[in-house]
User: What shape does this take?
Amino acid sequence: MLSRYRVYRYDQLDAPVVTAGTGAVLIGTQNGLFPDLGFNVEGEMGGLWAGEKKVCDGFFFAIDDVPLTCADACEVNPAATAFHYRLQAQQLHIVRCQFIPDGASGCVIELTVENQRQTPRMVEVSFTVRTDILTVAAARGEDGMELGRDVGEYDEVTQAFYARDSRNPWHTVWGADESCRVLQADLPQSVYGFGNTRGKGINGRLFYRLRVGAGAQATMRLFVAGGVASRSKAEDALSALRAHAGEMIAAKEARLMARMEESRAALPEADLERAWNWTKICGEWLTRDLPGGGVGLCTDLPEHPSLFGEGFAQAMGALLPLGGGERVQEMLRTLVRVSAEAQLPPGRMARRVSRSGRIRQVGGVKESAQFVALVHRVLLWTGDVQFARDMLPTTGLCVSYLRRATRGFEDVRGDIARETHLALAGQAYILRLLGEDDTACRSELEGLAPQTQETPEAGASLDAWAAWHGRQGHVEQMIGCLCRMAKAGAPGMPGAMKPEGAGVLLSARSAAGFIGPMTQSLFGLAPDAAGRTMAFAPHTPIGWDGWRLENVKIGGASVTLTSERVSPSQAKYTLAVSEPGWTVVVHVNGEEKRIAVDGAVSLVMED
Assistant: This one.
C-alpha cells in the first residue's frame, strides 16, 4: 500500500514540494502556497508546468470566506500531495489533495470538507487560479519570442475559465466536475487573502456551494490544465480530466504501488531505508514523456526541466538497481533517435533536449563515452541481446569519435580518462555478447594508462567519500556518509539527498552517489544478466542485525537478498532467485567460488 510510504510534515512547511506526472509537474511549498520560486527565470519556476509551458502560478481557495493561507500539515505520498487545514472557528477540517495523472497536461485537485457540527450545512468554496502562461525561452527573450499579458474569460456553457497569452497560442483552462455548478465567476485584481505573484497573469475565480451532512464530509474535484495551442484543445484536456480522473488516479496509484515493491529495502537505519525506497519515486517524478514519442529524464526541478542534461548517464545508471532497466532502455532509444533526427555528427550525442524533442546542447567526447558505458551497464542488468544489437551502430560511432578526438587514444585527457576506459570495456562487452570480434577494443583498452583510485580531497562531497569508503571496505564510514546524505535533502522529500545548485529541489543525478555505494558495497551485487551470473560480496555494518532487499530485477529474474547477523564478525547471507540457471560468484577466504543457484543459496561470510 502507498500509505506505507506516507510522510507527514508539521514544521518547516516553507520547504518546496513537488507533485509530478509524466506530462506535467506542480511545484509549490509544503504550506500549500505558491510563492515566487526559482532562479533560471527569477521567481517563475514554481507553479503548474505542462511540458515546456507554464500553465499557472498556482491556485488558491477560500472556504466560507476564509482563505486557506497556510496548511497545518502537509502529507506527501508517491502519487499525491495533500494539505490539511483546521478551521476551528468554523468547525471545519479541509483536505486539499492534488494529483498529476500519467500522461495528462494538468492536475486534479480533490477538496474534501469535513463538517464537525452535528447539523448539516452549505459551504461556499472559492477557487482562484493565478495564470502566468510562459516558456522559459520566451521569459528570457530567447528564440525571438516575447511574452504578452494573459487574457481570460468564463464560459457558461462549459462551466470553466479559459485564459491565453495575448502574444502566443498558449492556453490554460480550469473548472470543476460537471456535477458542481458555478454560482459566480469573476476576474479579481488580486487573489483574495493572498495577493498576487509576479508576472503578467490574471486571476480567474469560480464560486461553488457544497452540501455537507452533520458530522460528515463531502468531496469535489477541480481541474487545471493547459500548455496547449488552442481553446478547443484546452476544452478537450478539461473534458478528459472530468470524464476519466477517477480511473486515471487509480491507474497511477496501482502503477506506483507495483513500482515501490521493486527493489524494496528493509534496513535498520530508518533514514537510509526511506531514502532508498523513495529514490524510485524521485526517478518517476523526473521522468517525462515526449509528445513525439519516447521518454527522457529531466535534469532537475524546478530550475532545469530539460531532458538528459548534465550527468545524464550517472543519473540513468542509478535507476538500474531500482528496477528501471526497461525504462532506461527506452530513454536511450529516445536519445539515439533524437540525435539521429537532428543529424548530429557521427558519434556525437544530444546533451540537453527540450520536452518537444529539440536539441539545445550537443555533447562532446565525455558524453559519447558515457553513452557507451551506460549501454554496457544496462546490458549487465537486463541481458537484452536485441537492445545490444540495436545500440551497436551508435556505440561503434561513439568509439570511433573518441578514437578520432584522442588521436587513436594516444591523447586521452585526465578529465575523460575514466570514461574512456569504461567506454572501451563496454564496447568490448557488447561485441562479445553479439559474437563480434572485440580484439581491437581490448588492445586499445590495454594501451591506456592504468586507472588509480585516489583518496578524495578534504573538501570532497559526501557521495565521493561514500564511494571511496565503499571501495576500501570501510562500510561503517560509508554508511555514515550515506546517513548524512539522506538527512541533507529538502525536509519532507525523502530521496532528494543532495540538491545541487540554488533553487534545485530534485536532481536526477543526486541519487547516483547514494544508490551506487549501497548496491556495490552494502548489498554487494554486481550482475551479468547475459551470462546469468551474479557477483555477490555483501557486508553488514557493525551494530546491524541484518537487512533485506526484495524483488530486484536482473534479466528475467527477481532476486531477494537477506542478511542475518550470526556473530560479531559474521553474517548469514541468503540469495534467492525466481528462476533456475543462475550462478553466484563469491569470494570466501580469498578463494573464488561459483555456486549454481537452485531457488536459494545461503552462505556465512565474514565482514
Remarks:
- The mean pLDDT is 94.
- The radius of gyration is 26 Å.
- DSSP finds twelve helices and 33 strands in the chain.
